[in-house]
Amino acid sequence: MPTSSSISAIEAVSLEKTYNTRQGFWKRSTHTTEAVRGISFWVNQGELFGILGPNGAGKTTTVKMLSTLLIPTSGKIHIFGQDIIAHTNEIRKRIGFTFGGARGLYGRLTAEENLRYFAELYALPPKTTRKRIDELLELVNLLERKNDKVETFSSGMQQRLHIARALLHDPEIIFLDEPTVGIDPVGARELRAMVKNLKEHGKTILLTTHYMAEADELCDRIAIINKGKIVALDSPANLKNQMTDDHRVELIVSSEHLLLVKNALSQLGSKEKITYADHAFHTSIIIQTPRLGTVIELLSPLLNNGLIQNLDVRNQTMEDVYVTIIQNEEK
Amino acid sequence: MIKRILHYFRLYFYQAWFSYRSLFSWSTPFTYLTSKIGFPFFSMLFFVFMGKFVGFSDPMFIVVGNILMMPVTNGLYGLSMTIGNERQFGAMSYLLGSPAPRAPLFTGRAFFHILDGFITIVVALPIAMLLFKIDFSGINFMLLICCLALLAITTTGLGFIMGTISLLSRDGWMLTTTLGQLLYILIGVNIPIDKLPPTLQTISAYLPMTRGMQATRLALFGAGWENVAGLLLGELLVAVVYIIVGYTLFMYVERASMSTGSLDSI
Amino acid sequence: MINHFFRLGFVQMGVQLRMRVLNLWSLVLFFTQPAIFSTVGILLSRAAGNANPDLIYTVLGAGIMGMWSGLVFTSTYDIRADRATATLELIVGSPTPLRRVVGFRSLMNILAGSSSMIAASAVAVLLFNYSFVGINVLGAVISFLLLLIGLWCMGVFLANLFAWSRLSGTFVDLLEMPIALLCGFMFPISVLPLWMQKISAVFPIRWGLEGLRDSLQGGMIDSALTTKWLISLGISLVFYLLSRWFDNKVHDHIRVTGELNSI
Q1: ipTM of the assembly?
Q2: Whole domain around residue B27: which residue ranges?
């Protein structure tokens, strides 16, 4: 929790957001959707905070509330200590945001014209605007396409232009809602490097993403949201540790050798959790174990005799953690 | 054979119904009526008072003409707007990438708009009767229904041509809007055909709906089959020509749009 | 602050010109539709036995029609298009109030719509030998400016209305023709039933238009004309104040309902 002597960049307390929609043509009924059901968290200045969750969990709704685009049904939000409802306009000057996808730009205008347009909404002086536009287009690798119409850009390029747009007024907090969606791996890697760079320059960043590896790599802390509630919140390392110290051993075994392998694995005790997934010509076996050495010792002869096609050992990933948490929630 | 006919039937009605609902649904009866009746009705009143100002002695001509235009414009714009909206929502590629036969696939889309327009007439006629004290007691109902059905067929043909224009260009619906507005002058909606300048009368003779409008007017005021047979026959002939032209053009343009990549808006 | 205000205006109007005005749809609204209405008026007039139609109503009135249609459809289209392209939330999420963006866009729409009036005047002069000799020039200029102010105030008010909800656009059809009818774009108000004339009194366009017509018919600047000017200006101010009041409500409402974009 932030101490009394420090002000968080972002503080959300008991946030709720409910949508009421009316349905039916002759007989109208009201349908209520609780998108966010009481979430609380804070983000320190200079922190890179991640929000993960399945589709429809409430991530984008949360980000939109934090970026002043939605008014919460209940709860409080403070940005640098200022209430988001009472000081909306002041807060808007200090934050930038971008939502995933290729929408949100004027296709018939060039990249530069789009940025000039949005720069004016943030009252940037013309000199600053010109300089910032060139700097940012260089940062997002679009300087050569400065005078091309945005409708000729690929979705990845449009997404990069969005990042440039969000940074025009040099905001202190940046909300990135699924910034790497639709971007190729090379572009995504560059974008992640950019995000790290922004953090190193003291920016506070709130990131939502579906890509677990991205969250693991970038975030100082992660909140996992499911069905409008936060179900886990901690650093990636602590989240992984909380789950288990288990290693994962993944095997690929052909159908003809499956029985033999199963017999061998039956020697393992209750400490191991084994799951089988049958495919057309082979079976995938996942062994979750705290006793990696024991398991490897057991499997080595099978591997040497060619009964196992492939063996892979790895630690728990963020994806494992996420899937486990969500599945536990579903139960 | 029967399976194919059933498939055509499903495309024409069932699939087109989904298209209509997805692209043109109204949330309440109020918004439906204000949208359907609003513009045509006030447009009609506008022309009536314009006519009154210039001394045109037959306001009922304008009233009846504008009411009869409601299903016509619905059908015309419906098909071109459908195609425009399908493109905007990115569904056009999937439609044209399917093996579904084009005729029922697209003409069906006009059907619900025309039906929509006839519902509008059912609402608008009594209002007009009350407001303007028009006497429709002599309506020849059977003849009227035939005339309206024929108008619907003709509208489909012209709508196909307009839909083709929408397929050619994402701004094509603007041209269709202009063409649709020209009909207010040329097919006897606001001005009797015989009062038009000779050049416009000639153009009018080659347009669909000109004869159909005349026949429908006569039916509303009790004319018999013998009075309108010639008009109906002429209208049917013109309708067939426009449908053939529209369909051929559509098929040609469909192939061309695949080369130019104008299938989707983005 | 003042510099930013003018820069914002310049940028907004520039983008508006390129994005919304310079396209085929504007061609239809500003020129084609008025031409069609004008043709109907002229042909009706001839069908009634008048070889020489009253050009002030039939032709110049069509120019006003173009200005109004242009304003209604571009103002609604602006908001709808911004919703569809997800730029509305970017604009609302910026420190610049939406009303300022809308205000400049409406100004551009009005100025662009004036081309309709210019075209109508050119047609009246070139095709129908209309003469501007004998008109009250000062009266016409002031009336036209007040007409523009009235249109602008209504445009800003409407844009707020359309920002209110995704469904507001369905009411566009209810706006164009009723106003054209009630304000007597192509015929004198006296042609309408009395109850309609009373309703039309609440629209500033009606008064600006009457002042313009009086001046075009050579009327002097007298108390009748200045009264119409004052009424036009007063009602325009009311619309403007209403839109300022409404603007905050819209800003909060769309953030409660989450209708800043189409999906």
Answers
A1: 0.89
A2: 2-260
